[in-house]
Amino acid sequence: MPSVSVVLPAYNAAATIGDTLQALLGQSCGPSDREIIVVDNGSTDGTPDVVARYPGVRLLHESTRGPAAARNCGLHQAAKDIIVHLDADTLPARTWLARLVAPFDDPRVVLAGGRTLIFHPTTPVERYIAGAGLYETERAITRPPFPFVPSLNMAVRRSVALEVGGWDVGLLTAEDVDFSHRVLKRYPDSIAYARDAVLFHRVRATPEQLIRLADSYGRGVAAMYMRYRDEVRWDIVKTVKVRGRIGLRAIEAAALRWGAAVRIVPPARADFSYCHYLWSRHFARGFFTYYRRAQWEARA
Amino acid sequence: MLTKEPKTRTYVFRSDVVATVLNDGAVLLDLETKYFYRLNRTGWMIAQLFEAGTSAEGAWQRCLGWGSSEADRAAVEALCETLIGERLVEEAPEGNAAQVAAGADETSNGAAWTTPTIERQAEPLQKVIISAFDPSVPLVE
Fold this sequence. Notes:
The complex is a heterodimer of chains A (300) and B (141). Chain A is an alpha/beta fold and 300 residues long. Chain A is built from eleven helices and eight strands. Chain A has two domains: 4-201, Spore Coat Polysaccharide Biosynthesis Protein SpsA, Chain A; 210-299. Chain A has helices spanning 17-25, 47-52, 67-77, 96-101, 124-132, 137-140, 158-163, 175-186, 207-227, 236-261, 267-299, and strands spanning 4-10, 34-40, 57-61, 82-86, 90-92, 111-118, 153-157, 191-201. Chain A has an eight-stranded mixed beta sheet with strand order 3-2-1-4-7-6-8-5. In chain A, α1 (17-25) links the parallel β1 (4-10) and β2. Chain B has 141 residues and is an alpha+beta fold. Helices cover 30% and strands 18% of the residues of chain B. Chain B has helices at residues 41-52, 56-65, 73-85, 102-108; strands at 11-13, 17-22, 25-30, 36-40, 89-91, 118-120. The longest helix of chain B is centred in the middle third of the chain and has 13 residues, at 73-85. Chain B is globular, with a radius of gyration of 18 Å.
């Protein structure tokens, strides 16, 4: 089994990172040669104090803001063959690490993603995120035009991460899409999905947070289209298609909400549809806002 | 029910039951039914014995070593009944005698004995609701 450096970026994660570290330290099997590195990204809530309670966990500090900068800091300090990333609000299952690095027994595999499940969804938004599979690696690694491994449940060969230049600190969102794209350009068909590597994501989301998330993801995808416009083109047909989908989702959401009000549709279904509309609308808004501005700046 | 099952029968976790350790216990997820189960610290110490394989009686004997008293027996048996009744554990292959689960002892280090609890979440994890118009979430393709 390869040696592993677990790199965990953290920003104001005092409320959750203790459980994450406890779950990491409580792995029932896996590589014996491993280290855990937490990179604090300027937290003001006492995150480093929480991390200090866990012996054997190495704490680094990165002043440049953003998860990409934090992961680069960890990447350059890590000493093992495989770099494993997870977020500070996740809970790995007991066998997660062993299952996530198992695909690397095949020398052709350079990038792997595990299975991410939403932990105890309670609100309609959390149930939407869980039901829609927004963080599901299984969907992300086959998603055109930018298949990727979400960085909250990822493993990559350290040599390859360094070879592609690490993480782009210029991106505050979709940095994992960009990273995966660069890896896959250099090593096509080198991605693996570790279905048994189960990790729980502690999403605690309100409608406002869903909107912000959708907007930032939309901007991230637009950044990818601008960055790789020689490979993937955006056109008017796609714009019409997107606008049409949003319109249909608005109609669907309104119809189901009416149906729920007169008790012919389960409220959960209406909630899901409304969240789906919110997500679609604000994802598109983020996308088009960023894309138009970037195009204008490119022309100027 | 333990009254129907021999208390010395050895059980192990099903392969599609995953556990994650928290500061105050652990959570189990049955990937088949998608139900979460929350265990307190003592509940997790007992449940952890089923990783290597144990019987209800074996689990009780270990609890005695961790400071439990006869008054706790019902709670320990109830937890084992839940694990068996909810099919989180399955009968170990014949000839697979209960082994020592070192992890449980590590978990118990310094922990005061409390009544073990296990609680099932009211709803299963994911009930994917398919949109009547378009189930796909990705908007920009």
